[in-house]
C-alpha cells in the first residue's frame, strides 16, 4: 500500500498541472496584443537606415539577358532601358559583324551609378538565336549558360572557406523579343519559353510595336496571352509566387493588361513641343518612347527597374536557383563533383 501512495499523489499532481484537452477553435486565435505605448524613443526605426547604408556600400548586381531574332532592336531597347550605352553593339560594334552560325553568348558588364547607388549591370546577349534555316534546339546553349551560372554559385557556396560575398552571375531576368507579325507566336517562341521558363524569369516583349496599328497591337497582345496560357507557359511574375493579396492584385493587373509589353526603343533625342524626348522619327511624326499613348516602354522600365528588380533577384535565388541546387545535391549525394 505504501508503494501505491506516491503514485496516487503523482497522478493527482499531474491532473492538477495538465488541464483537460479542449476542442481547438475553428479560427486561429489572434495573439494577445501587448501594450506597445513606448515610454521613450528606442530607435527601432533606424534599422531601415542601417540596412540602406550597408547595401549602399556593397552595391547591387543585376544580370539581364536579351533573346530574339536579329533586327528586333534588342541592343537599342537595353540602351534605352538604362539610358546608357550598355549593349553588346554599343560596346564593341563591328561593321563587318556577321550572323554567327550557332547561338553565341556574349556578356558585357558595366557599373551604373545614380544618386549614390551603384549597380553592377551585366547585359547578356544571344546573337544567332533564331537566325538560322534550321533552329532546332537553338535554345540549348542559352539554357546551358543559365545553368552554368547556377553551378558557379553553387560551387562557391559549398566551399569550406567560402567568400563573404559570392559573385552573382546568375541571370535574373530574360527579355524575350517577339516579332511584331500581328498573327501568332512562332513554334520557336513557344518552344523557347516552354523550356526556359522553368529555369529563368522570362518577360515577353513585342518588339518594334510602332509597325502595328493600335487595334492590331491590342489584338496581338491578347492572342499572345491566350497562346501562352494554352501551352501552359508561365512568364514572370508567376502566379504561384505572389506572396500576399497586395502582390496578387498588382501582378494580376500586369499579367492581364500589360503582358506582353509592346515597346519601341530609341537612344536618339528629338525636340517635341520645346522638350527633348527619346523617340523614333518617321515620315508622319515622332514616336515618343516614354509616352504611354505611343508605346509601353515606360511600363516595362517601371516594371523591371522601379517596382520588381529586387523581386526578380529573389525569385531567381529562392525558386530557380534552389530548384537547381536541390537537384544537383540529390544527384551527387550531397556535394557537387
TrEMBL record:
GO terms for molecular function: GTP binding. It is found in: Cytoplasm, Cytoskeleton. Gene3D superfamilies: P-loop containing nucleotide triphosphate hydrolases (3.40.50.300). GO terms for cellular component: cytoskeleton. The keyword Disulfide bond does not apply. Filament-forming cytoskeletal GTPase. May play a role in cytokinesis. Belongs to the TRAFAC class TrmE-Era-EngA-EngB-Septin-like GTPase superfamily. Septin GTPase family. This is Neuronal-specific septin-3.
Amino acid at each position: 500500500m505504501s508503494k501505491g501512495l506516491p503514485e496516487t499523489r503523482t497522478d493527482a499532481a499531474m491532473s492538477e498541472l495538465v488541464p483537460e484537452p479542449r476542442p481547438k477553435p475553428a479560427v486561429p486565435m489572434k495573439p494577445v496584443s501587448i501594450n506597445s505605448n513606448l515610454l521613450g524613443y528606442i530607435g527601432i526605426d533606424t534599422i531601415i537606415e542601417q540596412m540602406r547604408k550597408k547595401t549602399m556600400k556593397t552595391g547591387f548586381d543585376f544580370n539581364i539577358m536579351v533573346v530574339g531574332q536579329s533586327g528586333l532592336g534588342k541592343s537599342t531597347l537595353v540602351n534605352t532601358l538604362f539610358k546608357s550605352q550598355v549593349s553588346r553593339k554599343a560596346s564593341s560594334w563591328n561593321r563587318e559583324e556577321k550572323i554567327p552560325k550557332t547561338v553565341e553568348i556574349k556578356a558585357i558588364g558595366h557599373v551604373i551609378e545614380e544618386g549614390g547607388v551603384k549597380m553592377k549591370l551585366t547585359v547578356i546577349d544571344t546573337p544567332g538565336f533564331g537566325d538560322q534555316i534550321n533552329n532546332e534546339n537553338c535554345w540549348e546553349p542559352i539554357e546551358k549558360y543559365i545553368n552554368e551560372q547556377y553551378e558557379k554559385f553553387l560551387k562557391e557556396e559549398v566551399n569550406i572557406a567560402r567568400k563573404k560575398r559570392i559573385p552573382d552571375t546568375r541571370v535574373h531576368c530574360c527579355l524575350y523579343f517577339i516579332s511584331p507579325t500581328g498573327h501568332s507566336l512562332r513554334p520557336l517562341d513557344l518552344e523557347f519559353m516552354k523550356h526556359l521558363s522553368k529555369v529563368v524569369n522570362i518577360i515577353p516583349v513585342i518588339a518594334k510595336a510602332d509597325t502595328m496599328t493600335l487595334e492590331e497591337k491590342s489584338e496581338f497582345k491578347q492572342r499572345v496571352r491566350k497562346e501562352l496560357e494554352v501551352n501552359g507557359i508561365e512568364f514572370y511574375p508567376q502566379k504561384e509566387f505572389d506572396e500576399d493579396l497586395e502582390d496578387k492584385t498588382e501582378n494580376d493587373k500586369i499579367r492581364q493588361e500589360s503582358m506582353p509589353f509592346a515597346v519601341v526603343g530609341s537612344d536618339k533625342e528629338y525636340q517635341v513641343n520645346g522638350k527633348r524626348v527619346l523617340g523614333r522619327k518617321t515620315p508622319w511624326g515622332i514616336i515618343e518612347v516614354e509616352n504611354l499613348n505611343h508605346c509601353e516602354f515606360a511600363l516595362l522600365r517601371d516594371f523591371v527597374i522601379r517596382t520588381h528588380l529586387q523581386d526578380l533577384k529573389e525569385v531567381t535565388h529562392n525558386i530557380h536557383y534552389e530548384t537547381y541546387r536541390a537537384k544537383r545535391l540529390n544527384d551527387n549525394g550531397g556535394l557537387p563533383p
